[in-house]
Description:
The protein has a domain at 437-521: Golgi alpha-mannosidase II (Immunoglobulin-like, Sandwich). Helices cover 28% and strands 16% of the residues. It contains 15 helices and 18 strands. It has helices at residues 3-6, 13-16, 20-33, 39-43, 77-82, 84-88, 130-142, 203-208, 227-244, 261-269, 282-289, 300-310, 317-330, 356-368, 409-427, and strands at residues 47-49, 94-97, 146-151, 155-159, 217-221, 248-251, 272-275, 296-297, 338-340, 372-376, 437-441, 445-450, 453-458, 468-473, 481-484, 490-492, 498-503, 509-513. Helix 14 (356-368) links the parallel strand 9 and strand 10 (372-376). It is globular and about 80 Å long.
Amino acid sequence: MGLLNLFSSSASSTAGRPSTASLLVLGLALATQAQALTSSEWMSRSVYQVVTDRFALTNGSTPSCESWIKNFCGGSWLGIIDKLDYVQGMGFDAVWISPVEKNVDSTDPNTGQAFHQYWPSNLFELNQPGEDLLALSNALHARGMALMVDIVINHVGWVVPSDTAVFDPTIGESSSGAGDGVYGPLDSTADFHAPCGIDYSNETSIENCWLGFGFSLDLVDINTQSDTVRSLIYAWIGELVSTYSIDGLRLDAARHVEGDFWKGFQDAAGVFTIGEVFDSDPQYVKTFQTLPGLNSVLNYPVWYPAIAALTSTSGSMKDFSDMIQTVRYHFSDSRLLGSFVGNHDVVRARSITTDSSLLSNLFAYPFAIDGIPIWYYGDEQDGSDGGSDPLNREALWTLSSTPYDTSSTTYKQVHLYNQIRKAAAAFSTTFYSHQADIVQYDDNDIVITKAPLISVLNNRGSGQSSDVSITFLTSYEPGTVVVDAISCTQSTVDENAKLTITVKSGLPQMFLPLAAVTSSSGVCQ
Length: 525
C-alpha cells in the first residue's frame, strides 16, 4: 500500500488519515528495501550540489535567466540526466538535488517564486513527475554515482494574503475533508505550531517558532512533536527513498526540528543523513552529529575561518588551523562532515575575491581536510560571482560564454582535486578513515596531513613577490620521493623525514608518494 493510495482517500479528514501503526509499519518496511550506501561508503564520495531549476533544462535550451528576478527558469531532473557527463567529468560520484516536494505558488515580486523548492506546500507530492526522478536515480546508479535528495521537514510555505490573515491549513480542501488541500494530509491546526518569531538564544523557540515570521511569505513550523505528524512523515520518507532508490538525504534546517524526531526518521528512511546547522559555534554544531538519526552535518564551523583565511592575504591561518583541530577532537566523527566552499545560502567565493591563486587554495581545502567534499554547481565556471541569495543561484548556462564549458581553469582544477583524493585512497586503504591533522602553520601557510596526502595551502595570492621556502615534518620514510600532484614537481624527503618545498605565485601544493602517482590515477600523466 503506497502513500499515493493512502492519501487519496475520499473519506472525512479524520477517517482519510491512515492509522499511526499502519504508517509506521509501511515506512519501516519500505526502508528495508533500499540498498543504501553506508556512512563509510559516503566518506569516500565527493558531491556535486545543484539547484535543480538553475542547472539544465529538459530540452537542452539555455534561456535568459536573471537570478535577481527569482523566477523559475525551467531546470529539471531530466535536464540533470542530460548533463551527467559534465558532472562526472569533474570527478564527482554523487549529486545532491534540490528538495523534491511540491511547493507553494508565489507570484509576489518581492518574495519571488519557489524555484529553489524550499517553500513546500504538500510534503507528500513531488514537484516534477515521479518517473523523471526515478530516471535520474537510475541514470546516476548506472554510472556508479549516488543520489542525495534535499528534504524539507521543518516547515511549509504560506503566501500571506494580508497583514491580518491567519494561517488556515485546510485551505483548498474539498468539502469531503480528505486531506486534498494545499497542505495535503497536514490539514489540522494541531499539525502546526502557533505563530511566533524565533529567539535564537532559546532552543525551544528555535524548534517551534516560524522561520521568516512576519514577512509576505511565512515558513509555518510543522508540529513534528505530534505522533500523527511523525507517523505521516516517517511513512512518506520510507516510500520516497524506496521508490526512487535514494542514497542519502540532506536535511534542511535540521536545527529547527527537535532532536528526538530524527531517529524514527532515519529508521524509516534507512539511508545516510547530513543535517544543515547553519552556525559557526563548533560546541553547538557538534551536538547535532551525536543525535540518533543524524550521521553528519555540514561543516560550517570550519567554513567560516576557511573563507576568512583563504580569501585574503591578511586572513588568519591560526583561526583556520585551530578550528580544524577543534572539529577533529570535539566532533563525534569529523570524517563524515560535509566540507564545502559554497552553497545556495552563502555568497560565491568570486564575490569575495577574484585572485586566482587565493581561489585555487580555497577550492582545494575541502579535498585536503576530513569530510565529504561538496561542490556547489557553477563554481567551476569563471562567471560564478554571485553575492547573497538570490544572486548566488545563477543559471549555470549563463556563467560562461560557452554553456557548460569543460575547458575552464577551475573545471580542470576540481577534476584534479578529485583525482588526487582518489589516488591517495587507492594508495592507502586507510586514507578515508585516517583523520587529518595540522603539521604546522604560519601567517600565510598551513600544512595539512591526511596520510598519505600532505597539502600545503597559503593565502599569499597571485601577487606573491618572491618564492618562499618551507620545511616541515612528514610521515614519509626518509628518502621517499614525493610529487606535488598539482605541478607534478618531484621532491625527496630528507634523512629527518622532513620535506622542503618552494611556494611560488601563491599556488597550493598537494603531495603524494611517487608510488601513488600511477597511470591509473590519472595524476601527472
